[in-house]
Write the structure tokens for this entry.
Amino acid sequence: MNVRRRRLFISGNLEGGPAVWSAWSLSSLCSRILRRGDACPRRLPATNSSGGSARTERSSSTAYTGITGSPLVRRCVIAAMAAGTAFASVAFLGIASAPVASAAASAPAAAQCNPPAFPTGAGEEASCNIAVTNTVTSAGATSSTITATACLAAAGVLPPAGCTTTVTTSKQLVSSINQCNGIVDGGGSNVTCNVTFANDISSGTPTSGATVNQCNGSGTGGGTQPTTVCAPVASTTNATVTQCNGSGTGGGGSMRVKCNVTGAATALPVSINQCNGSANGGGSTVTCTTRFVNNFITSSPTPTSTSASPSGTGGSGTTGTPGAGGVTPVTPAGSGATGLTGSAPRAGGPTGPPTIVGTFGAVPFGAPQTGLGGASHSRDSNLLFAGALTLVGAGLALTVAIRRRRTLSAEDANETS
Amino acid sequence: MKPSSWVARSRHPARNWGLIAGALVLIGSGCLILGLQEHQHPLAGPVPSARAPKAPKTKEAPAKVAILATARSTPVELAIPAISLTVSLSTLGLNADGTVQVPTDIQQPGWYGLGPSPGEIGSAVILGHVDSSEGPAVFFKLRSLVAGDIVDTSLADGVTAQFKVTSVVMYLKTNFPGQAVYTSHGYSALQLVTCGGAFDTQTGHYLSNIVVYTSLVALIPPAAA
């Protein structure tokens, strides 16, 4: 009874309970066998937290050795040591194999906003942006970063509502991008998808033209012409960019399919497929862009920072004037920080890349060190307490054993005399 | 030795006690070894946000999006109801090597003062520790935020800039996107930054950063605040 109580206490307080339980149950099993005048099993059962195999083995008379003296003790001690070693190994492996967060994953292909993750029904606002940066150093080392933002909400509910952003890094270059294909075909939906494919490569790396296949069979089904606004209009087989084909075919407004490709040269090969066969219900719109950027690097960039005054007494910003029907910025009052403040795009303006505005400060170099590991990196006081308590128990048991042994020796001496 | 003699000995509890002592030594040693080893539990990453609930469908035209912004004013307090956090703010700058300063008080986040203030158009950044060698710090629960959670920043001029979380992203520090975090995206944003992921015992730092991206949704004047 005492054995059972202690076993429960220990297994309930230790990490890796089954392994401890097994070691404990093996030794206690041997103790019970010895007490009964039996021997340890010749072939020890595999460690099992249920202990069932040990009992099964013990019930077989052929599985036991004959009655011997000290070899019996040695076997039991060896068994206990083996169990202890197994326990320690399991525990060690458990710690060593702790999961590592944020491991870089291979990412040769980038895909998002496609079925079944994105719906094929009606009345949806699907906005997806994917930015891929492939980097090849002058030494030939490759890496890539995919920043993908997928937004899904009811039609008319614009980002950032319903957005999820993921960032994936890899040592491999991304060679394929697929997004916004075959989605929201139920009518009254809007698809807005953008791809930015950037090559960070050494100077002198040759580029090749990006062929385009877009806006074929799109914008049909009625509506005031032009229903498609595409640049360039092209139909090239196996093109670098295949987008906006067979989309917006359900009729609707004028210029409901707007697609373009800019920066029509890429230093690294890629296949981009987006906005094909999407938004084919009535009254839907498709707006998709692909942009190529080639950054030629002559040497490793040295981080620089520009100090800016945090006091807000720097130059005042330039205030933009919104166009008719455009958004209205709130003009800041008082002294501002350096930079531009408050300009906004004009409605119906050019469809080029938006001008990023706002207050700019010094961008720090590197990542902030905002943690020292106290919460995730600590010693286990419960284990220490249990270990100390167990060793005290071991000392007591050893003391009792020595005393009993002396008594036995004295009795043997008396019998001999 | 006679068998009967051995049986008599084996019934003597001395051997049993010896075995028990041996087993206890093994178990106790194992416990001490494990207990003394410094456990490494990687901090969990951001909570995967489910698809955002759809807004009720109406036949009305979508409302025009207005860019909210306010004048530059030093943020003095940060409140995140979702994680029951209300705390005053310090102001941070740059170290000599160009890296951003981190707060000296682990229980007080700091606003990066060389960038926009919360509410200005651009990306304001507030940094806080996830923990110290003693235990959790002010931004320990930051990774549990999800899209839609509210972040309030009280400014020195009395205005409260209210932001809504748009995404929570964990980056390896080797790939920390300084441009995305610190530069303007064309609207008023507030980025909350702390550490996360696995802990590197060699360097004494985490391998990743957690960034909470938010966008301004309301400016509450002093009287209402």
Observations:
- Residues 381-416 of chain A form the longest helix (36 residues).
- Chain A touches chain B through 127 residues (CB under 8 Å).
- The helical segments of chain A are 2-13, 17-35, 52-59, 70-96, 381-416.
